[in-house]
Write a structure and sequence with these properties.
The protein is an all-alpha fold. It has two domains: 2-228 and 321-423, no CATH class; 238-304, no CATH class. Helices cover 73% and strands 0% of the residues. α1 (2-10) crosses α6 and α18 packs across α21 (401-413). The longest helix has 31 residues, at 336-366. The chain is globular.
Length: 424
C-alpha cells in the first residue's frame, strides 16, 4: 500500500493525464461547444486579426477565455472543421487541468502536507473527476480551475514566507486571469486586492502586486473596445438572472435540475419566472420605465416582503449550487436506480469536500490562521453570495473547487499541528 501511495503522490499529473485520455472515450461529456459563445468568439478573434484588426467580436462571457482557446483554434483554423476545433480545444483544456493539479500539489508540498492527505485528495479527484469532465467541452471551466489553483499556489508561498517580489506580481496575474475567465468574481478580486495591500509585507512586494493588478482596468478597457455585442443584451441577461433567482426553488424547492424552459422538464418555478418577466416587461413598456431599474426594485421588494422564503431559498441554494446534476442523464430513459444511484455516488464524494471544507475553515479560525482563513472565506463566500442573489448553477461555484481540495488536504494534514508548526 505504501508503494501505491508513494507512486500516486509523486505522479499526480501523470495520473490526471491518464484519466483525461480515459475520460475522452467515455460517453459522459458536456455539450461539445456549450452554448457556442467561446467557440464562435474565438473564431471571431482569429478573423479579426486576419482581416487587419477589423470585424466583430461578441464577448458575452469571460474575455480571457477566448484567448485561452486562441492557440489551439489558431493551429487548426485553416481546416475550418468543428471536430478539429473541438479536439484541439479539449487537448488544450486537459493540459491546463494537468497544470492545475501540478500547482495545487506544489502548494501542498510547500506547506508540507502529509503524503496521506495528498493521496486522499488524488483519490477523491479520481473517483469524481469533475475537473476532467469540464475539460471535455469548449466551455472554459478548466481555465477557471487553473486560475484558482495558481492563486492557491502563490498564496501558499506567501503564507510559508517563501514568496519573492516577482511572486506577488504572479499572484496578481492569477487574480487577473480569474477575473478574465470568470468576470462574476470581480468583487472577490477587489476585496482580495485590498486585503493584500493592507498586509504587513515590504512595500516593494506591494508595488509588484499593484503593478500586476493594474492589468484589470487595462483588460476592461480592451474588452470594451473590442466587444461589439449589444450592451442592452448584457443588461437583459443581468435582469433576467436577477428575476429568476427570486423564483428559483420557490414552489419546487427540491427541483434542482438546471433550467432553460425549452423542454418538458421546465419547472413550474421557471415557467412562473417567465410569466413574471412578461408582466414586468409590459409594465415597463406601458409606463416607459427603465427595465433594469424596475426589475432591481421589484426584486428588492420581493426579498423584503418574503424574508422567510428568501432564507429558505438561500439555505437550499447552499446545497444546490454545490451539488452536481447531470441533466442529460436525468432527462434520459434510464431507470431511476441508475439516475439516482449515479447522483448519490458523485454527490456523496462531492459533499465530503464541502463538509470537511467547513470543518477546516472552523479549524483555521479557531487556530487563528487568518492568513489562510480570510482569503478562502472571501473566495467561497462570494461564490455563494453570487448564486444566492443571481441564477444558481454548479459552474459558478466550480472555481472554488481547488479551495475545497486544499481545505481537505489541510484538514487531514493538521489534525494535531497547524501549518506553521509543520513548517517549523
Amino acid at each position: 500500500m505504501k508503494r501505491i501511495i508513494d507512486f500516486a503522490v509523486k505522479n499526480p499529473v501523470l495520473i490526471t493525464a491518464l484519466l483525461c485520455v480515459v475520460f475522452y472515450f467515455l460517453p459522459f461529456k458536456p455539450k461539445p461547444f456549450g452554448d457556442g459563445q467561446f467557440h464562435s468568439g474565438t473564431q471571431q478573434i482569429i478573423e479579426y486579426v486576419l482581416n487587419g484588426f477589423q470585424g466583430n467580436i461578441n464577448i458575452d462571457k469571460g474575455f480571457l477565455t477566448l484567448f485561452c482557446y486562441l492557440i489551439p483554434y489558431a493551429l487548426v483554423y485553416t481546416f475550418h472543421d468543428d471536430h478539429l476545433f473541438f479536439l484541439s480545444g479539449v487537448i488544450f483544456s486537459c493540459l491546463f487541468v494537468c497544470l492545475s493539479v501540478f500547482y495545487l500539489f506544489k502548494a501542498f508540498a510547500i506547506l508540507r502536507f502529509t503524503d496521506k492527505s495528498k493521496f486522499y485528495v488524488l483519490v477523491l479527484m479520481s473517483l469524481f473527476p469533475i475537473h476532467i469532465y469540464y475539460a471535455m467541452g469548449i466551455i472554459g471551466e478548466a481555465f477557471g480551475f487553473f486560475a484558482s489553483s495558481l492563486l492557491i499556489y502563490f498564496w501558499a508561498k506567501h503564507y510559508a514566507g517563501m514568496a519573492h517580489r516577482t511572486d506577488y506580481f504572479r499572484l496578481a496575474l492569477s487574480l487577473v486571469l480569474l477575473y478574465g475567465i470568470k468576470p462574476n468574481m470581480l468583487p472577490f478580486i477587489f476585496v482580495m486586492t485590498l486585503y493584500v495591500l493592507i498586509l504587513k509585507i515590504p512595500k516593494a512586494n506591494k508595488m509588484y502586486f499593484a503593478i500586476g493588478m493594474a492589468l484589470v482596468p487595462v483588460f476592461i478597457l480592451v474588452e470594451r473596445s473590442l466587444d461589439n455585442s449589444n450592451f442592452e443584451f448584457k443588461n437583459k441577461v443581468f435582469r433576467q438572472q436577477l428575476l429568476w433567482s427570486r423564483f428559483e426553488l420557490r414552489d419546487e424547492p427540491f427541483n434542482w435540475m438546471p433550467q432553460h424552459g425549452q423542454d418538458k422538464f421546465a419547472s413550474n418555478d421557471y415557467l412562473n419566472n417567465l410569466e413574471k418577466r412578461k408582466e414586468l416587461d409590459s409594465i415597463c413598456i406601458a409606463n416607459k420605465y427603465d427595465r433594469t431599474t424596475y426589475y432591481v426594485q421589484w426584486v428588492k421588494n420581493d426579498i423584503l416582503s418574503n424574508p422567510g422564503l428568501t432564507l429558505r431559498q438561500y439555505s437550499l441554494k447552499f446545497f444546490q449550487a454545490q451539488s452536481f446534476i447531470i441533466s442529460p442523464l436525468m432527462k434520459s430513459d434510464k431507470s431511476k436506480v441508475v439516475k439516482y444511484g449515479i447522483h448519490i455516488y458523485i454527490n456523496a464524494i462531492n459533499y465530503i469536500l464541502v463538509i470537511v471544507g467547513l470543518f477546516a475553515m472552523y479549524r483555521l479560525f479557531r487556530k487563528k490562521e487568518y492568513t489562510l482563513f480570510f482569503p478562502f472565506l472571501f473566495f467561497w463566500g462570494w461564490g455563494l453570495l453570487y448564486v444566492f442573489v443571481f441564477h444558481s448553477e454548479q459552474r459558478y461555484m466550480f472555481p472554488v473547487r481547488p479551495v475545497l481540495l486544499f481545505l481537505f488536504a489541510y484538514w487531514v494534514s493538521t489534525d494535531k499541528f497547524s501549518p506553521k508548526q509543520v513548517l517549523v
